[in-house]
Structure prediction request, 238 residues.
Amino acid sequence: MSKVAVVTGASRGIGRAIALRLAADGAAVVVGYSASPAAADEVVRSIVEAGGRAVAVQADVAQPDAVRGLFEQAAAAFGPPGIVVANAGVLVSGSIATTPLEDFDACFAVNTRGAFLTLAEAARRVCDGGRIVAISTNLTQQTFPGYGVYAASKAAVEQMVRTLAREVGGRGITVNAVSPGPTDTDMMSEAARASAPGITPLGRVGLPQDIADVVAFLASDQGRWITGQILGANGGIV
Prediction:
């Protein structure tokens, strides 16, 4: 399998941790980002200083040409990808009754349309025996007021993962999603940061590295018999 990895939303948070972990496992990493070039360059620098290979590529995952360009630049830099992680996402909170349509559209543009475009391009370009992983959320399984739109945008991703696994399985490609619980990133609210340890069996907030380790397992040869699954990485909160 090709050890070239494309990770969207990789300039910060969970995506950054995934990029660093895959690089540590020997992958050449394409650090996809939307609006944080300095942060993306820092991720690349960290990988290169540790002896790895990486490039940063700007791409708005909601735009087909940008996603296509991301994969074309990945192939030009390192060759065809063997690992694709559809991580880019935005958080929209607010009740269904009061969420502006503009916020709904923005959430679905990145989380659902962006994942669709990334997964579709991955299905066309990932080499046989490759790995495709999407990042979802535990909120698809729990109902917290104020997160209906966000959860809905990720629930659609989970269904695409299950279907795509059947569509590309004949080429030995696995497709899975990782579903984090409350995780210490800048998307996490202070209220969630304070309350999560008390309602999580393991008694703490998740770390980006906790999620990256699960993604790395799915992307490795050890994950070869797992496909079409939604793996909870949430400290038991679900």
User: Anything to note?
Assistant: The longest strand covers residues 174-180. The chain has seven helices and seven strands. The chain has one domain: 4-233.
